[in-house]
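Regression check, NDP case 277:
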Amino acid sequence: MALTINSKIKLNNGVEMPLLGFGTFRAEGKDSRRSVHEAINAGYIHIDTALIYGNEEGVGRGIKDSGISRDKLFVTTKLWISDQGYDSSLKAIEKSLKNLQLDYVDLYLIHWPVEEKLHETWRAMEEIQRKGLSRAVGVSNYTIRLLEDLKKESEFIPSVNQVEFTPFLYQKELLDYCQNNSIRLEAYSPLTRGRKLDDSRLVKVAEKHGKSTAQVLLRWDLQHEVITIPKTVTSQRIIENADLYDFELDYEDMALLDSLNEDARMIHPANIAPPEW
Ligand code: NDP
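Current build output:
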């Protein structure tokens, strides 16, 4: 079936998650409220935020302003490093829900792994799902090794692993691992934070389809069945980044994009996570 802005994929617990979402990292101050409202008006039904972004309140207000009914919207937020552990994770989700003015989120992610608290924090995530505070739970920035470790003691498998993922950081092994283990891969910084949008090979594919390079990058995710969450606070780009459904990358385009890997990370884990990452 043809992809649309409402296309969803099923998570391993049966919850359906929209493939296209709206990122909000660095959507600060009034921009978070306005841009989320505009995004929902433009047809996005999935919003990604995190406690550490400091904008959950603005995101929540943008959702309220839009008037969309809660069950039509998919909202993700994330548990920060300093809140990991059993009791503190349970407290952190309550704080996020209060900020967002929501009774539940659709997906709650462990933002970055903290290895010594890996299992304890995951037990809290399972409890959060059981209590209905989040419809699904998952992780972010987890490697195959950490996912394997988590599997040893957990009751639920994470529904999602949100990682940096672009043709320039084509983590094929991780994608295959997730697909084979019923974990959905979600791409953050899918537009390379704007840094690779002038790449001549991307430009060529974009010109062939009469689209922008940003649209090509996002379409590449969708055709790999990877959830993608571009961020912008610019009105015209909010529309552009959702205008992905009147073209299709052909086999040749996909093969070319799949060949661009250069392990180019826009976010360097060593700056955030412990060295064992
Ligand atoms: P993106 O790859 O989405 O790039 C965002 C940047 O690209 C902004 O500077 C934006 O500018 C610009 N941009 C957006 N659309 C276009 C366009 N069509 N043409 C040209 N430039 C454009 O980066 P992010 O790092 O923000 O990643 C997306 C989301 O992923 C985040 O917002 C966040 O929700 C999530 N994330 C999660 C992480 C994690 O650890 N789990 C880490 C990082 C991000 P402007 O806004 O000025 O228009």
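Comparison notes: The longest helix spans residues 86-100. Residues 23-25, 48, 111, 140-141, 162, 188-194, 197, 212, 214, 229-234, 237, 240-241, 267 surround NDP (CB under 6 Å). No diff flagged against the previous build.
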